[in-house]
Write a structure and sequence with these properties.
The structure holds 2 protein chains of 2 kinds.
Chain A: E1 8-10, H1 20-24, E2 30-33, E3 36-39, H2 49-53, E4 59-61, E5 74-79, H3 94-102, E6 107-108, H4 111-125, E7 135-136, H5 141-150, H6 164-179, E8 188-194, H7 197-205, E9 216-219, H8 220-230, H9 245-249, H10 255-258, E10 265-269, H11 271-283, E11 291-295, H12 311-322, H13 362-378, H14 392-401, H15 410-429
Parallel strand pairs in A: 5-6, 5-8, 7-11, 8-9, 10-11
Antiparallel strand pairs in A: 1-4, 2-3
Helix pairs in contact in A: 3-8, 4-6, 13-14
Chain B: E1 4-12, H1 21-32, H2 37-58, E2 60-68, E3 71-78, H3 86-89, H4 99-102, H5 111-118, E4 121-127, E5 131-139
Antiparallel strand pairs in B: 1-2, 2-3, 3-5, 4-5
Chain lengths: ~425, ~140
């Protein structure tokens, strides 16, 4: 039920089993077994925290390369707005977009443009009477998976609108087919230039019944140097860009929420904060709000693990770029402006087996819980990680579930050993 | 008697910022037991309110949560000042919380009424200058 193709992988040869990632994994999906990390695929949310933290660079994101697009006749790049914040001394986004054409793409469609449409439609959506408030943004795929796995009671709060990447993909395809009627769907390859591995997973797995319109995902860091070399500093750069402050603002935390022109919002970033806010929504302990924007990465998408710049520097660069842009470059088509078209929605959220559940039977769960409580009292409680589990509590769960052995606790083992040696000493004394 | 699991917590009265930790831990435990989300929500709201009350008024206390296959029972005990008039305390908007606590957004006089609203059974035993014990129960669907 939790079948999910991930984009975060481990290079076993580089991993020394140091326990750093163990402590930083927000869903406790990692254990150290036989001297190296093992990721529990059912729990992993592709947030990339372990990639960021690994001192040996043993955790990797698996994305596509430009070669993977060779089979397509017509290639379209979908740059995330985050890409715009990665360059020094850049005055015009068009230099980047032209660079993408120069490295072999036939067209470029900005995700920022689609983001402006999503913002406009979100403003309409929030006016509906039949929706559950606060509405939670569906743009960050890590947050979506986290909610589905850990906060299923909040599923109804998720805005069922497709993320800007998907809207951009559909519009880019339509545009290509309009301009080149000879192209069939299979001829067109749409490639997202991504700040994070979670987008790659989203594309591979789709979402519930929805199948992604994107064909490939290339990381910003993989394409960066090739792109920088292809960016010419000419006077007459191609005027490709069609996005304003709102669209580019989506790259950092708060950008999506401020675009709603509605004060009753909250924007939180960083996976710990996201977890905390979701907990508070579930407990009904937050003030009444219309909209909640959540980004798993610190600073928002600019904090993605596949970017080149520090998130705060990238954010500052984006502010400079946005300064003289119009608020929005995208207008909703007249006539339908009171309704969100169906093609902007996804129909249902995926259902996963709840990860935290001990057993499918309540009485069995209770028996296991009693054992865990008992074991926890015996364990040292210092969360050293030497056993391969992130906390003593997690270790107790593993032992009760049968996936770890109590002998793996080195602290307990040591005190047993000392006791034994003491008793031996007593014997020899007498 | 059917099987039960008991969780026990000391609610620290000195540290206001740590209030709510016991109810978060209970929430995690109930999730692991596979309790339905709406039940978990009711238990954690009722327990959170009670926990905050113990910190604000009584300088802390203990929280005992017993889970059986039929219900979840929360017992909150403290050795605080006690409640003078329980009927009055149960009225929405009635509060004896000090101003510094109100400035943090607490003390709206909704604690006890919410605890009653979110549970199927609630009993308050209180004696002035001795302490208060509140027992709440949320039934599980069979």
């Amino acid at each position: 039920m939790n079948n999910y193709e991930h984009s975060v992988f481990l290079d076993v040869n580089k991993c020394i089993g140091c326990t750093t990632c163990l402590r930083h994994c927000p869903t406790q999906a990692i254990r150290i077994r036989n001297g190296h990390a093992v990721i529990n695929q059912a729990r992993c949310i592709d947030c990339g925290e372990c990639i960021k933290i690994c001192p040996k660079k043993a955790k990797k994101a698996v994305c596509n390369t430009l070669k993977d697009l060779d089979g397509f006749k017509y290639k379209i790049a979908l740059p995330a707005p985050t890409l715009y914040g990665q360059f020094d001394n850049l005055e015009d986004v068009n230099f980047i977009l032209e660079g993408l054409i120069n490295i072999g793409f036939d067209d470029v469609f900005e995700v920022a443009t689609a983001a402006e449409l999503v913002s406009a439609y979100t403003r309409l959506y929030l006016k509906r009477e039949d929706i559950k408030k606060p509405v939670i943004s569906s743009a960050c795929p890590v947050v979506l998976r986290l909610i589905c796995l850990r906060f299923p009671s909040l599923k109804e709060n998720i805005m069922p609108m497709l993320p800007p990447m998907e809207i951009a993909a559909r519009l880019a395809r339509d545009k290509a087919k309009g301009e080149h009627p000879e192209l069939s769907d299979e001829d067109i390859g749409v490639c997202f230039i991504s700040p994070c591995p979670a987008k790659a997973s989203y594309v591979k797995n789709g979402f519930g019944e929805y199948k992604s319109q994107v064909d490939a995902v290339i990381s910003i860091s993989d394409i960066y140097f090739q792109l920088i070399n292809a960016m010419k500093h000419s006077e007459n750069v191609m005027p490709i860009s069609n996005s304003g402050r709102i669209g580019i603002g989506w790259a950092s935390s708060g950008g999506e929420a401020t675009a709603l022109m509605n004060d009753a919002y909250l924007a939180a970033d960083g996976i710990e904060n996201v977890n905390h806010i979701l907990d508070e929504i579930e407990n009904d302990t937050i003030p009444p709000l219309e909209f909640i924007e959540l980004n798993a990465c610190t600073g928002g998408c600019v904090g993605g693990v596949l970017t080149m710049q520090n998130p705060f520097i990238a954010k500052a660069k984006l502010q400079t770029l946005r300064r003289y842009l119009p608020v929005s470059q995208t207008k909703l088509p007249k006539g339908e402006s009171q309704d969100v078209p169906d093609c902007y929605f996804f129909s249902e959220l995926p259902t996963y087996y709840p990860i935290s559940r001990l057993s499918s039977s309540m009485s069995e769960s209770m028996r296991m819980m009693s054992e865990i409580q008992k074991l926890r009292g015996e364990l040292p409680g210092i969360d050293c990680g030497a056993c391969g589990a992130p906390t003593c509590r997690a270790f107790a769960e593993d032992v009760v579930k049968g996936t770890a052995n109590i002998k793996d606790c080195t602290i307990m083992y040591r005190s047993e050993l000392l006791q034994y040696l003491d008793s031996k000493g007593d014997e020899s004394d007498s | 008697m059917s099987e039960q699991v008991i969780f026990t917590f000391d609610v620290d009265g000195d540290d206001f910022t740590s209030a709510g930790q016991a109810s978060s831990q209970v929430k995690r435990n109930l999730r692991q037991l596979g309790i339905a989300p709406d039940i978990i929500k009711r238990v954690s709201i009722a327990m959170y309110e009670g926990e905050i009350n113990m910190v604000i008024h009584a300088g802390g206390g203990t929280a005992n949560v017993a889970v059986t296959e039929e219900y979840i029972e929360i017992v909150l005990s403290d050795q605080g000042p006690g409640i003078k008039d329980i009927t009055q305390a149960m009225q929405e908007g009635f509060s004896t919380a000090p101003d510094d606590v109100r400035s943090l957004g607490f003390g709206a006089g909704m604690g006890l009424p919410n605890m009653k609203r979110y549970t199927d059974y609630m009993d308050i035993q209180s004696q002035v200058d001795v302490g208060t014990t509140i027992t709440m129960r949320v039934n599980l669907p069979s």
